[in-house]
Amino acid sequence: MEQPIAIDTSIPNAGRVYDYVLGGHHSFEADRQAAEYMISLVPSTRKWVRMLRMFLQEAVLQLAEEGFTYFLDLGSGLPTVEHIHQLVPHARVIYVDNDPVVTAYGTQLLEGHPNARYLPMDIRDIHNLLRSPIIPEMFGDERKVAIGFNAITCFLKEEEIKRIAQALYDWAAPGSKMFATFETKNPDLMTPRMQQFLDMFERMGSPYCFLTLEESREWMKPWEADERGFRPLAEWLGLQDQITEEDREGVELEFYGAILVKK
Predict the structure, then answer these.
(1) Which terminus of the chain has a lower count of CB atoms within 10 Å, N or C?
(2) Could you report the per-residue pLDDT of 142-162, keeping only the tens digit for each?
(3) What gap in Å lies between CA 165 and CA 174, rounded to an integer?
């Protein structure tokens, strides 16, 4: 019989912190304290995080309207707050994360949802991930899929992003699409508060790195953005008037989204 996972509730967890900032309820006091501290350092955190989830929701609904019924979501975190399987319950969804706390929680949350499964794997091990028996169990032979790459490039290194993007491109059928986000700032700018914010991710075991827009475009090749290109999330969502100069936190913060295509 599989033993339940031991959870140290005194240590904040990035997945649960994210869920708390989104307004979810799957967190402990340490997660809530860490989240509130990080918001005190970078007050626009809650706004950016909510836009990341709103972009995911917008992209999923658009792709479902285009006929996609198979979704492979990478670095999923907790499947809460209107995640993919809730938005398109008829679709088959595979969530992927390497955090044992997140995957244990996620598996529990998906009980009663036969069209959704949680795959506990590190997306950096992308070739073995794509060979997982869960994929044919859920997708059969179908490889024209929608792929989620939302809010995770900031946790990956250049070589990892390039390798994952290429492996997914080689595996997916033509016509497949990927919805992806990219967290950027001016690489020459840093503030003490932003540095403390990044230090918190280090302490949670999830180092956080900002990209530039140019790196975001280059590292995702050979995937190509659709006709809308790489656009600020606020523009995708029609919320341009809700982003202020203060929200850029003195480092020119900008969060981009793109729908990428395998031609």
Answers:
(1) N
(2) 999 999 999 999 999 999 999
(3) 14
